[in-house]
Amino acid sequence: MAKNPYQQKNYIEKKRHVKYNHAGKMNQYLFRQAFKITTPVLFGYLAIGIPFGLMIVNAGYPWWIAPIMSVTMYAGAGQYIAAGLFAAGMSIPQILIAELLVNIRHIVYGLSLITKFKNTGKWKPYLIFALTDETYALLTGTEVPKEAEPGPFLGTIALLDHIYWILGGLIGAVAYQILKHYKLEQYITGIDFALTSLFVVILLEQIKKSKDIVPPLIGILTCAGAILLSKIGILPSTNIMLVAVLFGIAAIVLVRGRHLFMKKEENTEEEK
After folding, report:
1. How many other CB atoms are found less than 10 A from the CB of residue 105?
2. Which of 3, 54, 139, 201 could staple 8 via S-S, CB 3.0–4.6 A?
């Protein structure tokens, strides 16, 4: 028996309601899955982001600089470096070189995710922008559920990580501003050492994974050499980092260049 127009309209609206309700529940489920996956990053980014916010205000910048840097720059260790270098009065070229060398690894990250980002649609530019070390680890180790679209699901993971980092910096900046208002900031000491601590942890993790002490040793020696040249008056103090980086690259090429070249020749001969 054919439905009259009124019954037909009610049937279509009911079917549409069921469809939208199912989609809403599915979106909530996928969001919960993304949140569950990113929970470790939440605690990590709060622990690292709060000292960044504290350091920004301690360096003399207004509290709102921390969230703006986190939204537009979002470079983790790069933000620590930028804050420290600006406070130390480093030149723009030196800061750009330092940031490039610190974050150049993200190019490799992006290349390894070309296939995974292939069907992410409008989320792709943001996924590329938001590719931090932690987000990269999550994206490479997470399989997109069959019922989810790659773009929104992976994008939600990246967006949640970004929000965690912004929140950490904001909490730290506002907290320091409040302490400063009540003249209690002198009771917080060691904030500037947060960056050093962060890189010590990263260095130890890299040595643990690679079991290679040569690159860190070269870095320590070249930094010590640049500082020594500055102390005896040969090198201006503002050029310590730049000279240390250049010395480090040269030393790595001298120590490892020959080995890499020989390895490449061996691979070529095996292919023949």
Report:
1. 11
2. 3
Q: What CA–CA distance (Å, rounded) separates 49 from 168?
A: 4
Reduce the DSSP state of residue 253 to 3 states and report it.
helix
Question: CA 152, CA 113: separation in Å to the nearest integer?
Answer: 16
Nearest of 15, 81, 57 to residue 181 by alpha carbon: 57
Q: At a CB cut-off of 8 Å and minimum separation 6, what does 192 contact?
A: 55, 58, 84
Q: How far apart are CA 83 and CA 169, in angstroms?
A: 12
**Residue range 75-85, pLDDT digits in tens:** 887 888 888 78
Sole residue written with tokens 């002198």? 186
pLDDT of residue 22: 47
pLDDT of residue 134: 85
Model pLDDT for residues 182-205, shown as the tens digit of each residue: 888 777 776 666 656 656 776 776
Q: For the residues of 1-47, what is the DSSP string, one character each? A: -PPPHHHHHHHHHHHHHHHHHHHHHHHHHHHHHHHHHHHHHHHHHHH
104 three-class SS: coil
Whole-model pTM? 0.69
Distance CA 165, CA 70 (A): 7
The CA distance from 129 to 192, in Å, is: 27
Q: Count CB atoms within 10 A of the CB of residue 129.
A: 13
State the greatest distance between any 2 C-alpha atoms of the chain, in Å, as a whole number.
Answer: 100
Each residue's pLDDT tens digit, 15-31: 555 444 545 666 888 89
- How far is residue 240's CA from residue 249's CA, in Å, rounded to a whole number? 14
With bands split at pLDDT 50, 70 and 90, how would you rate the model's confidence at 65? Answer: very high
